[in-house]
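Subgroup meeting minutes
Present: P.N., E.W., G.H.
Scribe: E.W.

1. P.N. recapped why we're keeping a running log of single-chain structure predictions: easier to compare across weeks, and new members can see raw inputs and outputs side by side.
2. G.H. added today's entry (228 aa).
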Amino acid sequence: MSPSRRNLILRFSIFYLLFSILNTVSLQTLIFKQFGKPSGFLGRIVGYILANRPSNIERGEWTISLLNLQPTDRVLETGYGSGLTIEKMSKQVTAGQIVGIDYSDVMYKVAGKRNRQAIAAGRVKLYLGPAHELPPEAGQFDKIVDTNCFKFWDHKVAALIILRARLNPGGMIALTDQPRHKGATNQDAKATAEKYANYLKEAGFTNIRTEYKQMLPVSAICVMGERE
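Output recorded in log:
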């Protein structure tokens, strides 16, 4: 067996072991909160899951494929987590910049380590804090992306209005989600898409549309809107 195959098997074995330990009834509520804002020891375990769970990787890559990234784009990711999606986007945005903001100090450190070379080169910039408090010096953006974090936001419409102002005219926002609660169905995914579309409409976005991706156990959705 090749070293790369052994490494892959080891990574998946560790992931499923951790997931089995964490996926108990007594810990489910705590773990859900950790996915919203990872902290402490459990936060580091959640960070590992975010970076290695196959469905997370698949959702992130699918979302990136919908963004039509250009080499000179300025892109903001809200809730960057482990920094994996930022790392992948930075390989396409070679003459622009990827900016991320996340309010978990654990994820700030993890994502910073993962993207340290791109940060040193000035192609990636990370901030610590809630999305609606992105500092003015972060500038304007061509695209804003959020993958499975929007559900945790407070005052969603108010935050979207603030972010809309940070988009250049013609810029787009993409909100990806996959319902993960027990018993979730494709109908839940559709309901989530409709809810997100209404939030975008209330915040002043136009040309709102939804893409679906068939996944297990339920489909993922990506709701997109534009600033005129």
